[in-house]
Design a protein that fits this description.
Elements: H1 2-24, E1 31-39, E2 45-47, E3 55-61, E4 65-74, E5 77-94, E6 97-102, E7 105-112, E8 123-128, E9 131-137, H2 139-155, H3 157-161, E10 168-171, H4 172-224, H5 228-242, H6 245-255, H7 262-275, H8 279-286, H9 291-301, H10 306-312, H11 317-332, H12 338-347
Antiparallel strand pairs: 1-2, 1-3, 1-9, 3-4, 4-5, 5-6, 5-10, 6-7, 7-8, 8-9
Length: 348
């Protein structure tokens, strides 16, 4: 039991560390918040809107850094004026009560729902100098402009300390053009990749075709350069094989439609290797044949009629014809008849 515990201990530690990291990443304030309403101690309220008018926007980086700016939205984008960048410390007082320290000043903070409606996103309420600042979450601004606003506020820190507040216009049109350029770049890169793949495939196909052509030429040269003595010897071996008892028995089995099993095909390969050394290896090197195509070629070499080939392989006669003509086109790169393929196999 102790050994099992010791074995599981590293796993438990890793799991607890993973859970701890997940909890650490669950920030309370993360994102952009836009000021919606000011509520004074007297009870008076001032509504704010970013649509055309200027309001305040705060962007929290985790729960430890806040970027502040004045913000107004236009039909073509955003106008922002950097205001401040501060380090904050969030303190959970329990329940829904939170407190955070901004420039060493405590700011009570909590979440509420407008009109007690829980269907909408909660408002973030921050108390400063007796005034309640109610912010609504602005996910669209955070997704679209969050990184850019934070970068501008960071770059303007020195100017803000001097009281110089510059105005920045973030154009939606420019952003759309940037996206179009990015998409164009992606599509261009994808197009180049496709062209490279097609080019490599074409080069590989050309090399394979060239190699096949050389193999065919070598086969034909070997056949043409055979001496008369070799030709007569091959002819004698062929006659002996095709009159042998084993061949006659195999031919009867095939003609009666008996299926050939795996040992039978192995035996056929061995017999053909004795009579035609190198035939099966040359056949395999011509083209990556399927098992059906390979078996059809072996039976052609055995002088088995196409009708019997179809019977023993349990295929339609038309299928066997298609296989033969298709093999000719794949090997020679042009259309050919079934007879032309049979003559080529018999000549090998």
């Amino acid at each position: 039991m102790r050994k099992i515990f010791l074995l599981l201990l590293p796993v438990l530690l890793l799991s607890s560390c993973g859970e701890k990291r997940e909890k650490e990443q669950q920030f309370v304030l993360q994102g952009a918040w836009v000021l919606k309403q000011l509520q004074y101690a007297s009870g008076d309220k001032a509504e704010k809107s970013a649509q055309g008018d200027e309001t305040f926007c705060t962007i929290y980086e985790g729960d430890s850094v806040v970027y502040e700016c004045r913000l107004s939205t236009t039909p073509t984008g955003l106008v922002i004026v950097p205001n401040a960048k501060s380090d904050v410390t969030l303190i959970n007082k329990g329940g829904d009560q939170l407190l955070y320290l901004e420039k060493e000043k405590p700011r009570p903070l909590y979440f509420c729902h407008e009109g007690d409606s829980f269907s909408a996103s909660p408002l973030l309420v921050v108390q400063r100098n007796g005034i309640l600042y109610k912010y609504e979450q602005a996910d669209d601004i955070y997704r679209e402009w969050g990184a850019e606003i934070c970068d501008i506020v960071s770059r303007e820190e020195e100017n803000m300390k001097k009281g110089v507040l510059n105005r920045y216009v973030l154009s939606s049109k420019e952003r759309q053009q940037e996206r179009k350029l990015q998409w164009f770049s992606y599509l261009l890169a994808l197009g180049l990749l496709v062209v490279m793949i097609i080019t490599n495939l074409a080069v590989a196909a050309h090399r394979a075709k060239r190699q096949l052509y050389l193999q065919l030429q070598q086969i034909l040269e070997v056949q043409e350069n055979r001496s008369q003595g070799v030709k007569e010897a091959v002819k004698t071996m062929e006659n002996d094989f095709f009159t042998s008892e084993a061949y006659v028995h195999l031919q009867k089995r095939i003609s009666t439609g008996q299926r050939l099993k795996e040992p039978d095909w192995a035996d056929i390969e061995e017999q053909l290797k004795k009579v035609y050394p190198g035939f099966t290896s040359q056949l395999r090197s011509l083209y990556p044949m399927s098992e059906l195509e390979y078996q059809v070629c072996l039976l052609i070499k055995l002088r088995i009629p196409p009708s019997d080939i179809a019977s023993v392989l349990i295929r339609e006669a038309s299928t066997i014809s298609t296989v033969r003509s298709r093999l000719y086109k794949k090997v020679f790169g042009r259309k050919g008849s079934t007879r032309e393929w049979d003559d080529f196999i018999l000549s090998m």
